[in-house]
Amino acid sequence: MASDWFRSSAWDALSRKDFERNLARARPANRPQYIRIKGLALAATGQDVAARILFERVVRDYANSLDCRAALENLADMARMQGDLPKAEETYRRLLAQWPDLNATTGMAEVSLAEVLLDGRGIPSAGEALALLESAMRRGGALRLNPNLFRWHIALVRAAEVIGDRETVKRAATTALRLADRGPQFARHPTVGLVAADPKTLSWLRDHLE
Hints:
Layout: H1 13-25, H2 31-44, H3 48-61, H4 66-81, H5 85-98, H6 109-118, H7 123-139, H8 146-163, H9 166-181, H10 199-207
Helix pairs in contact: 2-3, 2-4, 3-4, 4-5, 5-6, 6-7, 6-8, 7-8, 8-9
């Protein structure tokens, strides 16, 4: 088999037929991974409907696979990007309920759910968001990377702002700005651990120091 048959973003009738033929020849244990990777390739090129169908296929047909967990996160992220916050919230909650260890995912589902809840700007939601952020910090793991830790602090600023905790707002904003100023975390990998903060976000953070 060609090594890129499940990485290509082609999805016309012939490509779909080729994909299914190659998938049928693959080892059963590898099939959910191939389906999810194909979904990622399609999502990266804006083919969201086709990508969602593949992610849902992994969740439906390979519920016991590690890729099921990752596919759930992919579905939640996709719903969020499309502005369907109720669906994103539901899917993040499902992921956390079924696989609280978040193994085989980015490890950021708690932070992602907190961000979704904060979009509602309600005080009760902010309280739950803070609890999720505390849980994510206790977990560690993904927050060892500065870009993820930066996201965590942005969410903390937002949650603390809603409940009127000015001290936490300033402290979190200060830390986020320091993280943005740091270089890569690994000398041999210049883009790993590098915070890519846009000017608008940095300006927003500075405003919270006043």
